[in-house]
Specification:
Length: 379
Amino acid sequence: MALRHAVGMGLHRHYVGQSHHIDQRRRRIFWTLYMLDRSIARTLGRPVGISDRDIDVKLPANIDIDIEDDEEIGAALRRDPGATPMSAAIHILRLSQIESKIYCTIYRVDQPPADQAGRKVLQLRRLLDEWKDDIAAMVPNTSEDEDTPNYYIKRSYHILQYHRAILLLLLPQLPQLSPASQDFQLCMSSAGAVGQLYKKLHDSQSHLSYSLIALHATFVAGLTLIYCFLADTSVYNLKLSSDIRACSTILYVISERWSSAREIRDAFERIIANTIEKSVVDLPLSPLHNDSMGQAHGTEALNASLPDDQVSDTTKVFWSELATIGHSQKDMHQLPADSLDTSMSISQTENIWNSLEPWFGEYEDLWLSNCTNTDLDFF
């Protein structure tokens, strides 16, 4: 709704003849709404509010936001300010533009995923890598352990956003990838990084808040790790265990502050219990809750795997448990009968992202109403 008002006011268009102060304010308002629109659209599986082709207003200038005098703003525009707190925000906005290209290219519904892969994915991957390489120049080198309300200016936060974007790009291809392929390994690595970096921010930042976006990103990252394990049990090691545990920790943190997230947290724990914990044999204690596991059981335990027939059965359990999300709330929220039951028949070759969309989409009003009562942070 806010974006519609902005478009109605013409904030998405470039106009000449305005004062520097008004021009910069219009840019900041529009691009903030653009970023929120893209974040919500990706998470809820909704169309974006405005096409990138209809936008010609430039990103905000890299100047101090406290400057309001036109002459001072004009002087600031003519010099190189270097890295500023505003430059970090601009860098995130650039990532939102790249993610919008990914979403509108890879997730388009008028073409099958197979027709959207290949060269397009490589081009988008190159854009993401270039964005990551620019983090050092755009984000001030602040202490990662410093507790500050502006945690978004930390480089670790930007690295987190990069890995989330990698998942956005590669998840539709994951079921078709060989476990030995680089993209499969990258997808698993980025999923682990999402959990670990969220946990790192939580450990060092008392001002960190969570929202539907953080919940969705953590949950998808955790499911991706579990799926990768079921696709190839040989990937199981201490790092994978730690990465899944990090996702579980963040889901617990979010659910303690946001009661509506408990169903997601409980479903994630059930999936772990019925897939990984049942699949890794010869372990008297769960590897997800025992940091000394590696020392106690050695590499033989870490490399434990299941026979092929049991792997397929366990993979079916993954989808069955995923389908239980929201079942206990179906009567309470009058969830349509066909919104989740179709997940029961989803094979392991289906798109993980699409399997999550119905639940988050049906609960859109519930999530957004809860967001209005919390510290809304869509990162």
